[in-house]
Amino acid sequence: MIFLSSFISFKAGQNSSVVTIQNTKSGETADYGSFKSFVDAIKDKYYFDIDYEKMNTEIKKAIFSSLGDPYTQYMTEKDMKELQKTSTGKFIGIGVQVSVNDKGEVVVVAPIKGGPSQKAGIQSEDVIVKINDEELNKNDLESAVKLMRGNEQIGSEVKVTIKRVVDSEEKIIDFTIKREEITTESVISKLLDNGILYVQITNFAEKTGADFEKAIDEGLSKGAKSLIIDLRNNPGGLLTAVKQVADKLLPDSTIMKIVDSKGKETVEKASGKGIDIPIVVLINRGSASASEVLSVALHDNKKATLVGEKSFGKGIIQSIFPISNGGKTEGIKMTVAEYFGPNGTKIHKVGLEPDYKVEQSNNSKIGIEHLDTDSQLKKAIELLK
After folding, report:
1. How much is the pLDDT for 16?
2. Of the listed 99, 124, 226, 289, which one is catalytic?
3. Is the pTM above the cut of 0.85?
């Protein structure tokens, strides 16, 4: 990190040294000092004014873009502040979690429950092809997010054009969505008939672990005898929050195995007492990342039955590396490891298969308020009666 910080903040002509880095896996080297010749040529010959700050920023972006990993990127000071807002569960936007599929397309993992995207009709697996009539480039997740957030003014509008497969036919649909302040309550619970406690986790944020513990304790005190954990349309979040939830459910068990870039394997274990009641976990194609961590941990430990549809399949871990650069706090979001289930179950680009496959025609109308039409939730209740 010291090397990156010193390189990406250089000014043209200040450093003529050649710096190389060797790939420990392939033995290949990259000559980062070779950039200087190009910058010097621009400085010496370019006719128009030069915006060195913009040049510096674009070089940083290009370094990480060249890796071909949509989850690894340079983060400006503004990006770092926005990330902080998102992790606390409060921000201005259209309320949609996105990723990139194998074709490089920007795809909806899940609309945030109750947010403007869900209310407009955006669904999991919709492919976003244009924003404000501007076509998206392949693997450019960063630009898509920035265009959707726009000026971050409440009430401002953004046009989102999506591609959706309906009855084997591909359709293009336009949505005009107004930005709102998104405040996400990540844990919603209700005690149902027959002593079944229903707990929905919409995402894994800073308060999720504490809120989940409170929901479980209150449910058990009121006579809960079994538990449904609804992770559908949950795009993930903080692994620290997953650990807190797992600590409440699993007694001294492995949560996941993590393999880093050097091939080193570490094991993350639950350290709580656990609870001894039957558990059903609901998943669908909008269940990704941290929600898949919890699902596979409970399933591999034979603690829960999975019901619903195959999950999204994002089994890689990103870390944030803040960098203090000339008084600004920039950063890097970088893929640093892959995780596997306690039994070695692979998740990335594979997904989790449910024990009971139950299709749901409309994934935007699920949850306790749609019990009459939620076939997956009905199946979970049936298994626990």
Report:
1. 32
2. 289
3. no
